[in-house]
């Protein structure tokens, strides 16, 4: 159960939609992703969206505002939005543009974002432990 919009996959993991933004996101693609995610919130009855932006190297004011609008729309539809993996350059640009992304939750990476949404990572074996393959 996944969609693909202009090369940007939207995966459904239970009641969470997961997507990632590419390193170059133009205004048209930003609007298209927003529209698709908004439709998918309703169609999939999603309670949350995780957007991984770790590949996004730069952000402009239009894309930042589009992200804020998506967050507001998602909250009105009952879904939580977490933006994961923001690079320092993107954060600095947002500050320089005077954009706060109010209401947008952020995490350092996608794994932390999923944990914030209640996902439990599989336990890792202790360092030095011998892993025996299943036969």
Automatic annotation (TrEMBL):
Residues 6-117 form the STAS domain. Gene3D superfamilies: STAS domain. It holds the Pfam family STAS. This is Anti-anti-sigma factor. PROSITE patterns: STAS. The lineage of its organism: Bacteria, Bacillati, Actinomycetota, Actinomycetes, Kitasatosporales. It comes from Streptomyces venezuelae. InterPro entries: Bact_StressResp_Reg (IPR051932), STAS_dom (IPR002645), STAS_dom_sf (IPR036513).
């Amino acid at each position: 159960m996944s969609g693909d919009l202009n090369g940007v996959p939207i995966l459904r993991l239970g009641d969470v939609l997961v997507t990632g933004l590419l390193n170059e996101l133009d205004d048209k693609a930003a609007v298209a992703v927003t529209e698709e995610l908004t439709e998918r919130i309703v169609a999939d009855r999603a309670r949350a969206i995780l957007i991984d932006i770790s590949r996004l190297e730069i952000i402009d004011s239009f894309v930042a505002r589009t992200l804020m609008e998506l967050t507001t729309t998602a909250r009105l539809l009952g879904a939580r939005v977490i933006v994961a993996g923001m690079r320092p350059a993107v954060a600095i640009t947002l500050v320089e543009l005077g954009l706060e992304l109010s209401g947008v939750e952020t995490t350092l990476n996608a794994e932390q974002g999923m944990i914030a949404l209640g996902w439990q990572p599989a336990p890792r074996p202790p360092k030095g432990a011998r892993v025996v393959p299943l036969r």
